[in-house]
Amino acid sequence: MKRVLILNYGAGNLFSVARAFEALGALSEISEEPYKILRADLVVLPGVGHFSVLAQSLEKGLGGTLMERLNLGGKILGICLGMHILYEGSQEAPGFRGMGIFPGEVLAFPQGMRVPHLGWNTIRETSADWLRDFRGKRLYFAHSYYCPPPGDATTEHEGIDFASVIKQDRVIGIQFHPEKSGPEGLEFLRRILSWK
Fold first, then answer.
1. For a Cys staple, 147 with which of 25, 78, 156, 163, CB 3.0–4.6 Å?
2. Nearest 10 degrees: CA dihedral of 5, 55, 142, 132?
3. Which of 32, 177, 184, 187 is an active site residue?
């Protein structure tokens, strides 16, 4: 049974993410305890909150613990805001640093656009074989900031293409909320659990 740690950094949406993994047979736990992070097979950075809050939590020691877990062979899944923190920074919180696993800065949608990008949308393009089954599937999005392409998959909102999935080694970021995306979201998480 896979151990999934949902990182508790003071944001919302923790329990719905935990329930989604439990529905797939994983042992999920919500915590910020370093020893629990270090023994988890998968650490999930959940997707509700402000970039600065998560960045401050990482600066207080969680960032070092996450990198240690990666170095020991663990995996990280960032959902929405959890994806954003994997980049170097975000226009949502200038002056706060992300983890820098992916290069570049998370951007704000331009003024005049319908923001937040809220509701169902699809993966439009993908360069990754493992994502081809999800191309065109309806997934749930809720965000006002976006990760610029390239990525392993992109999605379009009012003429702006953004990275909706990005993966590097044992780190993956996704812009949509799988825990709110019905059967397609659960199937996505199932593949994450079997991710080698």
1. 163
2. -60
3. 177
